[in-house]
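Protein in question quoted in full.
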Amino acid sequence: MKETERIRDQMRRAFQGEAWHGPSLRELLDGVSARQAAQRPLGAAHTIWELVLHIAVWEDVVRRRLGGEQISELAADRDWPQLHDRGEASWREALEALERGHQRLLAAVEGLTDQRLTETVRGESYSAYAMLHGLIQHDLYHAGQIALLKKALA
């Protein structure tokens, strides 16, 4: 098995399921309504919706970096997009955008060679390998936050 296949498998498990740590991101988001996603049950903590938008942003950044784009710092409003419409249709759109973006990222990883994984990301000090594993860790960290937020809403 190629290393890129192993990475894709870890990304799939974290996002879709069959992970050892517990529910995947998609499993955690299943059945969450727009009202629940927009609630802030833990004071200043981000909402589920904000976390979903943030995860989508970083999956897109990583995909674009894999394509050779140099993206360093993100403005705060890009890193944590603001919610403008809290309706159910807008929530479904956010979930669909997360799914589409994740599929695009998986396709980008599929197109990588193992050699490419060792190369430094343009404008950064780390390899594509480290970036992809970092993204998996990032997504799982925020999935854990979503799990806690769901418990706080119950």
